[in-house]
Amino acid sequence: MDFVKIDDVDKAKYMDLLLIADEQADMIEKYLHRGEMFALRDGDLRALCVVTREESGAYEIKNIVTVPGYQRRGYGRQLIAHIVDYYKDSGNELYVGTGDCPAILRFYEGCGFAKSHLVKNFFIDNYDHPMYENGQQLVDMMYLKMNLKRKN
Ligand SMILES: CC(C)(COP(=O)(O)OP(=O)(O)OC[C@H]1O[C@@H](n2cnc3c(N)ncnc32)[C@H](O)[C@@H]1OP(=O)(O)O)[C@@H](O)C(=O)NCCC(=O)NCCS
After folding, report:
1. % residues pLDDT > 90 (the chain)
2. What's the CATH class of domain 2-151?
3. Distance CA 96, CA 1 (A)
4. Contacts of 143 (CB under 8 A, 6+ apart)
5. pLDDT value at 121 more than 50
6. Ligand 1 atom closest to Cα of 96?
7. Domain-by-domain residue ranges, the chain?
8. Residue 148 in this model has a pLDDT that exceeds 50
9. β pairing state of 114-119 and 44-53
């Protein structure tokens, strides 16, 4: 198993996978060019994520996806562990935002994130169509946060 950083010129090749985690391409394009993309490979590609540096100096996971067919095998958790290790010297906090979806929240909490704050109506205000997760409309963005320094 290895972790690789994807070159800027190659990022767009992964759009189909990124769309699984964030279903509107123009939203992905807002962070793709300024983010760093990481891949976990186990032979072939297994999981992918995009991380940005925000104005506050904190880092944010903008997109994370495990290749369908390989989910629930620990790849997502290992990719996050790699990201934490990668940014622990340069950043203080790592954030991730998600809809109010219990399974995804459990995933992030299991990776060491704790709930931070809500951005009200994020999915209504920023997406051009209603989005649903397990039949429930996504409205607010829940941010979770991890202290990168505690992981040293
Ligand atoms: C969310 C996602 C990245 C997790 O990656 P993964 O490789 O499947 O996760 P892992 O196997 O590392 O899971 C680690 C733990 O998180 C929890 N977890 C992960 N996915 C879960 C799910 N769908 N339901 C409930 N718990 C889940 C479990 O506790 C799991 O451990 P376990 O399998 O031993 O019970 C992956 O499911 C995915 O790509 N989903 C579609 C895209 C997406 O929704 N991205 C996030 C947008 S906010």
Report:
1. 93
2. alpha beta
3. 24
4. 95, 96, 97, 115, 116, 117, 118, 119
5. yes
6. 48
7. 2-151
8. yes
9. unpaired
pLDDT at 151 over 80: no
Bridging pattern class, strands 93-98 and 114-119: unpaired
Structure tokens at 10: 């190659």
How far, CA to CA in Å, does 16 sit from each of 11, 28, 65, 122, 125?
11, 11, 11, 23, 24
Q: Is the CB of 87 under 6 A from ligand 1?
A: no
CB 143 within 8 A of CB 119: yes
Q: Is the CB of 42 under 6 A from ligand 1?
A: no
Check pLDDT > 90 for residue 12: yes
Q: Is the pLDDT of residue 123 over 90?
A: yes
Residue 150 is predicted with a pLDDT of: 73
Beta bridge partners of 133: 136
28, 69 Cβ separation under 8 angstroms:
no
What burial letters (b/e) apply to 13-31, b meaning 16+ CB within 10 Å? Answer: ebeebbeebbeeeebbeeb
* Nearest alpha-carbon partner for 97 in 139, 34, 37, 130: 139
